[in-house]
Design a protein that fits this description.
CATH class: Alpha Beta
CATH architecture: 4-Layer Sandwich
Structural class: alpha+beta
Distance between the termini: 15 Å
Radius of gyration: 18 Å
Shape: globular
Helix content: 25-40%
Strand content: 15-25%
Bound molecules: aspartic acid
CATH superfamily: (Glycosyl)asparaginase
Number of strands: 12
Number of domains: 1
């Protein structure tokens, strides 16, 4: 938790889960660190030049969507049927307006489409082929087929999940992206404060490996995986079913609003106590209107980083 007044700040995550030092190679660690650093840099450039928090979080998330080490955009995990279905949401704290998309298959940058929904649609949340029709109508080019998102490591993860399912007498086994000790990549998110004092949050994901039947996770659900108002902005990662049931992000915002808790107190209480007792695993990156940043997680690790206006910057992975 940082605690200083900053006229702009950004924090990002690349997913939380079983991220253990003993399974991390130097190259892999470097790839994540570089991914997080590039994402923060893109967001900071927007903020430094006086851009909005909304533009900053979109820029930061797009960098990670384009980086195949993360489970969002290129590199998204596989569904049970060997396809990719992605969810994303961006929320403007100044207006509490948001744009969200779910189960899109042919959109290279789902967060860009979520932003288009925010800016151009009378609706706030579009799903599946309808969302893709909306994208095309607004001049967004779709990828030709979903092989654009294919990666070998994700395919291996699906095969492992299917194997576990078989061993388990066919009991459906969806898998959090980082629940495999050797495959530790994930959902991405960003929160930012701009020089005008406005906050925004954005989250984008391929969801959970081996998900079925049009499953949608917490990421595009406002108050669950993504939330922003004039006091805080939050992006979550972890098992979506639990995050939705706990309304994780809104719970933090509500404690700040109604109990006058600080961001650090609220985020810590929700993620480390309430959510944990609820049986949920995951974490958040969160920021308040003073530029304080909190990044609690109750898993072994979370890819994360923050940069403040005074140049203070930190990137971390593990919990210890
Ligand atoms: N929260 C995401 C989901 O359930 C997964 C993740 O954070 O890795 O779709």
């Amino acid at each position: 938790m940082t605690s200083r007044s900053n006229n702009f700040a950004i924090a990002v995550h690349g997913g939380a889960g079983v991220i253990l030092r003993q399974f991390m190679t130097e190259e892999r660690e470097q790839a994540y660190r570089e991914g997080v650093a590039s994402s923060m840099k893109a967001g900071c450039e927007v903020l430094k030049s006086g851009g909005t928090a909304l533009d900053a979080v979109q820029a930061a998330v797009m960098v990670m969507e384009d980086d195949s080490v993360f489970n969002a955009g290129k590199g998204a995990v596989y569904t049970h049927d060997g396809d990719h279905e992605m969810d994303a949401c961006v929320m403007d704290g100044a207006t509490q307006d948001f744009g969200a998309v779910a189960a899109v298959r042919l959109v290279a940058n789902p967060i860009k489409l979520a932003r288009l929904v925010l800016d151009e649609s009378p609706h706030v949340f579009l799903a599946g082929t309808g969302a893709e029709r909306f994208a095309e109508k607004h001049g967004m080019k779709l990828v030709e087929d979903s092989s654009y998102f294919d990666t070998k490591h994700r395919w291996r993860q699906l095969q492992q999940a299917l194997k576990r399912e078989k061993q388990n007498a066919g009991k459906p086994h969806t898998q959090l992206d980082h629940s495999d000790d050797r495959e530790k990549m994930g959902t991405v998110g960003a929160v930012a404060l701009d020089i005008n004092g406005n906050l925004a949050a954005a989250t984008s994901t391929g969801g959970m490996t081996n998900k079925r039947f049009g499953r949608i996770g917490d990421t595009p659900i406002v108050g669950a995986g993504t939330y922003a108002d004039d006091k805080c902005a939050i992006s979550a990662t972890g098992v979506g079913e639990m995050i939705m049931r706990a309304m994780l992000s809104f719970d933090i915002a509500a404690l700040m609003e109604y109990k006058n808790m600080s961001l650090a107190e609220a985020a810590e209480l929700v993620v480390m106590t309430k959510f944990k007792e609820f049986g949920g695993s995951g974490g958040v990156v969160a920021i308040d209107a003073e530029g304080n940043v909190a990044m609690p997680f109750n898993t072994d690790g979370m890819y994360r980083g923050y940069t403040l206006a005074d140049g203070t910057s930190e990137i971390a992975i593990f919990g210890d």
